[in-house]
Write a structure and sequence with these properties.
6-stranded mixed β-sheet; CNF1/YfiH-like putative cysteine hydrolases; single chain; alpha/beta
Length: 257
């Protein structure tokens, strides 16, 4: 059975459906067990298709109306008005729509998924915020695109879903330098367990900081560490540490009904 994490902040039931889906309730096997929704993985395409069909059904839309983009760690946001195919999906890391029946999905396996909604205006969005996208403005791009469709910042709710936690995200000094170069304030999102140790980055705190700085109506965290909960979530970093050949992706999605 699908067991998505949900938030009342994203709108009343009956108007908007959403979910931060984990690994439960799918048909994939082995390292992809069970609800792998990543078309870019090496999992059997029919298994991924069935998993996505189950997510679409849970959200109340046709399978072809559950859309994800070719994510490339950018700040690019696109407006969605109609379904696309795997061969025609755009490169983007935020999807925005005011069209009912189009479910917007963000795939992740440690990066931060963020779902947005202005229920009054009828505008929703899904963003994939890895460190690079978050640093260079994917969250801000999602909100600005929502505003172009009639949303207002003061009414927009944004909810952060499961991503890698700060105790699992060891990085190098050059990684930290990318953030400090943009703002010395960002040094607070890094911590060293001991003198001379490599820093650890707090991705969820950084994402919440960027969301909080935009003056949105509500910002909420429903995050859990994807690395530390192997039964519940896929994790690219955990897969790398285990020397597994590939990894699945969980999906977070939202739709106007």
């Amino acid at each position: 059975m699908l067991q998505p994490i949900q938030s009342e902040a994203l709108g009343a039931r009956g108007r908007i459906a959403h979910g931060f889906f984990g690994r439960q309730g799918g048909v994939s096997e082995g390292i992809y067990a069970a609800l792998n929704c990543g078309l870019g993985s090496k999992d059997a395409r029919d298994m991924v298709g069935e998993n996505r069909r189950r997510v679409a059904q849970h959200l109340g839309v046709a399978p072809a109306h559950l859309l994800t983009a070719h994510q490339h760690h950018s700040a690019d946001a696109v407006v969605v008005t109609e379904p696309w195919t795997f061969d025609t999906m755009p490169k983007a890391d935020a999807l925005v729509t005011a069209t009912p029946g189009i479910a917007l999905g963000a795939l992740a396996a440690d990066c931060a998924p963020v779902l947005f909604a202005d229920a009054e205006a009828g505008v929703v969005a899904a963003a994939h915020a890895g460190w690079k996208g978050a640093l260079h403005g994917v969250l801000e791009s999602a909100v600005a695109t929502m505003e172009r469709l009639g949303a207002r910042r003061a009414r927009i709710a944004a909810v952060l879903g499961p991503c890698i936690g700060p105790t699992a995200y060891e990085v190098g000094p050059e990684f930290e330098a990318n953030f400090i170069a943009q703002s010395s304030e960002y040094k607070r999102f890094f911590e060293r367990p001991s003198a001379g140790a490599r820093p650890y980055f707090d991705l969820p705190a950084f994402v919440l900081h960027r969301l909080g700085a935009m003056g949105l109506g509500a910002v909420e965290s429903q995050t859990r560490c994807t690395y530390g909960h192997s039964d519940d979530f896929f994790s690219y970093r955990r897969t790398t540490h285990r020397r597994e050949p590939d990894y699945g992706r969980q999906i977070s999605a939202i739709v106007l009904l």
